[in-house]
Every structure is written in C-alpha cells, then in structure tokens.
Write a structure and sequence with these properties.
The complex is a heterodimer. By secondary structure, chain A is mainly α. In chain A, 76% of the residues lie in helices and 1% in strands. In chain A, strands 1-2 form a two-stranded antiparallel sheet. Chain B has a single domain, classed as MetI-like fold, CATH 1.10.3720. Chain B is mostly helical. Chain B has twelve helices and two strands. In chain B, helix 6 crosses helix 7 and helix 8 packs antiparallel against helix 9. The chains are: A mainly alpha, B mainly alpha. At the A-B interface, helix 1, helix 3, helix 4, helix 5 and helix 6 of A face helix 1, helix 2, helix 4, helix 5 and helix 6 of B.
C-alpha cells in the first residue's frame, strides 16, 4: 500500500504534535506533583527551624545555609576563571591548535558525570589537600563542574558583541584590555549572567558530587572547613532512607521553587539582552 | 592606576584559559592513578568480564553493572531519542513561532530539575504503576529506562533544535518550490542537512544517561545481577560507585575508583564522537 504524500503529511504532523505534547505534559506533571504534595508542608517555620530526629520532623534550616554557601563558593571561583578564559579565547588569540584543545577540554568537562566529579573531589580536595568533608571541598568541586557552562555561555555572549563596537573603541586609541573592559564585557554582561544563573541552578540541584565532598552534617557550619548538607542531599537522604515522605516533599518543593525562580530570572535577563541587541 | 600592562593582562588571561584543560587533566590523573593500578593487578578481563561482586571476599567483577548500564542506557535512548527528535522537528518546522517561544524554555527547565527529584517521582509514581500492571518489584530496569529517557529529553531537544535551525532557509524553499510537501521537505532535505547535529544530540543524551547516578539509584533497585527481563532490579556502574563509596576502604575503594575509570573512558569516547559531529555541522553551514 502506498500512502499518498498528503496523508503521510497529516499522519506525521499528528505524531510529532503528540510527541511534543507528551514531553510538555510530563514536565507539567512533575512540577505540579511535587508542588501539590510539598506546598502544604512548606511554611516559614519549616524553612527556619532545625531538623529533629535526622530530619524525620522539624525544618530544613541548616540545609538552606549549605545550599547557599556551596554554589556561592563555586561561583566565586568559576566566574572569574570562566570569563577570563572566554575573553582570552575570543579577544586575545586566533584559532590555533591550542584554542581547539581548550574547547575540546571544555566540552569533555561538560560531559563528565557528576559522580566522577564526586570521586575526584573526594580524592583531591578531601584527601590529598586534606580539606576533609567541608564547605570548601564541596564548593571547589562544584566550581570545576560549572566551569565549562560559564566558559561556553560567556564565549557566546562575547562573540555576539558586534565587531564594530571594538573597531570604534580601537580607533579612539583604546588598548585591547580597555576595549574588553569598557566595551565588550558590559555589552556581553546579560549573556554572561544567564550562564551564571544556569550554573547556580545546576549546583543547587547537584547531589552525587556534593555528598562525597561536603558530607552530610546537619549542624550549622561555623567555618569553611565544616561539613554541611545541601537541600538536594537532605532530600535524597530523606527519600532514600524513607525517613519522612512528608518532609521530603516539602524539601523537594523548596528546591523546585528555587530552581524555577533562578531559571525564570535567567530567561528574563536573556530576553532583555536579545531585545536590546535588536 | 595600572597594575598590569597590556602584556601582563594577556599573560594572566592565557594562564586562566588553561583552567579547563588543567581541571580535566587533574581529574583524569587522580581517577586513573587511583583506579588503574587496581585494574592491572586484578586483571583487565577479570575485572570487566566476571560477574562476582563480593567485596568482603575480594571479588570485584563488574560485568553485571556494565550490562545493566548498557541496558538502562539503551532503554532510555529508545524513549528519549525519538520523543526528543520528534519534539525538535515539530517545534522548528510545524509549530507557530509563539508556541516554540513558550515550549522551548519550558523544556529546558526540565534540564534544571534536580536529578533526585526525578528519582523521587520514579519511586512514588512510576514504580507502583509498574508493580501493579507488569509485576516484579517495581524498582527495576524499566523504571530506570523511563526516568532516564525523560531526563535526557531536554539535551536531545535543545541541541536538535539548534542544528535544525542552522539549516539555511533556502534549502527548504528550494524543495517546496519543486512541489514537495512540508514533510517531504523535512525528511528529505532539512533532516539530511541537520543529521550530524541530531546525531550529536543523541550521543550527548547517551552520555548523560550513562553518567546519571542519583535518579538511577533511587529507581533501578540496585541488586547486582545481569538483567534477564525489564522488570529485574539492576545496579549500574554509577550506582555501584555511589552506593558503596561512603564505607569502602582499601581494595574495595580502589575497585570503585576502577569502576570510575571505566565510566570516565566511555564518557570521553562519547564526547569525542559528539564534538566531531557538532563540528561537522558548523563546517556544513
């Protein structure tokens, strides 16, 4: 039997539509499921009190501190390294074998599974550098993990700054670094911010790399060498050890809301960026 | 005030530019250094192709984990790749631009939902359904495949979208002018031109599926055995590392790092394939 091109067209388009609809429905289901079960648990009290009985009851306050500190340290290190790398790649050198190797290394780093980062962080930061299970070890491990995201997005943002801007700056007698500092980076900033936001989202949700480097202590940390537990790790432990489904849902809802806000901010800055470009 | 001259700045930037390479080398060095000696001492084929994983008796064969990882990944690809590519084609070629504008960021949001949340959904929603309708323990290879298939969707969709959009408009116009229907144009012209990018998106999805840890631990059941049906409980390479790392010492710990070495090498190979495919797309333009 030969299907006429016209019917083929109809059939295929409906299959494609269905596939897209399924994908979107799954996403909506996941978010609504977690929020529906978790929102009733979420309260100011839940967010600001210490967990009792390993998290069976009580709140999640210490894990919020962990969730803020680890990504903060990661970004403090990864942002300058990432931006400088992309400035060097875009503004200071031509395409050579070295830039190709740097790009390849960045791509590889982006594809490495988080459990490998966890193993590396454990053997390098925790053991070899003797930082122990600590905020510092976890933060540094996350820094290595988000570095490729920041390099890639900054590179794209810097490349999208029109060449004419640089030419005008040079023709006014500015040096290369002055041009980068005063013209290129300010214009690429919103794009760079998007990359940073995505990195925050990734490091907040990370579990495998964090659990082996920052540990899972529920105490409120007093120094960078103390172990902490992030919300993701807390959620994982609650859910996996079946300690408290109710608190697990609450923690998951808090996580999802945090990630949603960060993503929306990222898209908002990117859209403003694109609108401004046009 | 100037602390560094132009050349100083250039040198500092060049130094930081090596951060990504040095990170990759450091990771490779430390993982290989911890795992390779063990692999050679234990014997490469003993380690990779025997099925006894009993750390207490000093038996470390990871063949069941390798098979489980392969099956989970293949299953995830069977779900994620067709759905993802179909979604990408629909959004770029058939959906009105307004729909694309809303749905693309929504799908990319899927990528930033923490993997533990996917795992939890698998445990709370998917596993009971599988237990009820198909039998078995519920936490199984099948559950792992479905959850991972969903998790790789955003990777497959967004990279496929980029490569389909990179095909010049004139190609489609040429085909339509010859009287082809839009679907004929899509599969005979656009998809052929975007092929290497779509392949890259699938390979990167593959890498993500193999490397995923927490979601798989939560839904796949974790018993060490070579799966004989989709309803069996399985343990992947990544799960093996994460489950035992917290208490392993001595030989046992080295064996886990050796598992990491196997994973690392597979991922580097997959990434090299994907980045050559993506580069091919760029020269195509």
């Amino acid at each position: 039997m030969i299907i006429s091109p016209k019917n083929m067209q109809r059939g295929v388009v409906s299959i494609l539509t269905a596939a897209t609809a399924i994908t979107v429905l799954i996403l909506i289901f996941i978010i609504f499921f977690i929020l529906e079960k978790g929102l009733p648990v979420l309260s100011l009290n839940f967010l600001t009190t210490n967990p009792q009985d390993m998290g069976k009851s009580g709140g999640i306050f210490p894990t919020i501190i962990g969730t803020i500190l680890l990504p903060a340290i990661a970004l403090l290190i990864a942002i300058p390294l990432g931006i400088f790398t992309s400035v060097y790649l875009c503004e200071y050198t031509k395409e050579t074998i070295i830039t190709k190797i740097i790009r390849f290394a960045t791509d590889c780093l982006a594809g490495i599974p988080s459990i490998i980062f966890g193993l590396f962080g454990y053997i390098f930061f925790v053991n070899t550098l003797e930082m122990g299970w600590s905020i510092l070890s976890g933060g540094l491990t996350l820094a290595v993990m988000v570095l490729p995201t920041i390099i890639r997005t900054s590179e794209e943002a810097i490349r999208s700054v029109p060449q004419i801007y640089r030419q005008v700056s040079f023709s006014l007698g500015a040096s290369r670094w002055q041009t980068v500092k005063k013209v290129v980076l300010p214009n690429a900033l919103p794009g760079i911010v998007t990359g940073v936001m995505l990195s925050i989202g990734r490091s907040i949700g990370e579990t495998a790399a964090v659990i082996f480097t920052a540990g899972s202590s529920l105490r409120i940390p007093t120094s960078l060498f103390d172990s902490v537990r992030t919300m993701s790790v807390h959620f994982y432990i609650l859910a996996r050890e079946g300690l408290s489904n109710q608190n697990a849902y609450g923690t998951a809802a808090a996580l999802i809301i945090a990630v949603l806000i960060i993503n929306i901010l990222a898209y908002w800055t990117m859209h403003r960026f694109i609108a401004k470009r046009n | 005030m100037r602390i560094f001259g132009e050349n100083g700045v250039r040198r500092i930037l060049m130094l930081t530019a090596f951060s990504a390479i040095s990170a990759l080398l450091l990771i490779a060095l430390f993982i290989l250094n911890e795992g390779l000696p063990f692999i050679f001492r234990y014997g490469v084929s003993n380690f990779l192709f025997t099925s006894e994983w009993i750390p207490a008796k000093g038996l470390f064969g990871i063949f069941p984990m390798i098979m489980s990882s392969i099956w989970v990944t293949l299953g995830a690809m069977m779900i994620g790749a067709p759905l993802g590519v179909a979604g990408a084609i629909f959004l770029t070629e058939y959906a009105p631009p307004a729909v694309m504008k809303i749905i693309k960021p929504t799908i990319e949001l899927l990528a930033s939902i923490p993997s533990v949340v996917y795992g939890f959904i698998g445990v709370m929603v998917l596993a009971p359904i599988i237990r009820e309708y198909f039998g078995g323990p519920g936490l199984s290879l099948l559950a792992g495949c479905i959850i991972l298939g969903i998790m790789i969707l955003p990777t497959v969709i967004s990279i496929s979208i980029d490569s389909i959009l990179a095909v010049p408009r004139s190609y489609r116009e040429g085909s339509l002018a010859l009287g082809a229907t839009t679907w004929q144009t899509t599969h005979m012209v656009t998809l052929k031109a975007a092929r290497s990018g779509i392949v890259a998106s699938i390979v990167l999805g593959l890498g993500r599926a193999i490397g995923e840890t927490m979601a798989v631990i939560m839904v796949a059941g974790n018993s060490v055995n070579i799966p004989s049906s989709a309803l069996d409980s399985v343990r992947t390479l990544t799960a093996n590392i994460a489950l035992e790392m917290s208490y392993a010492t001595g030989m046992h710990r080295q064996a886990l790092f050796a598992t990491g070495v196997v994973l690392f090498i597979v991922i580097i190979i997959l990434n090299s394939i994907a980045s050559t495919a993506i580069r091919k797309r760029k020269t195509y333009k």
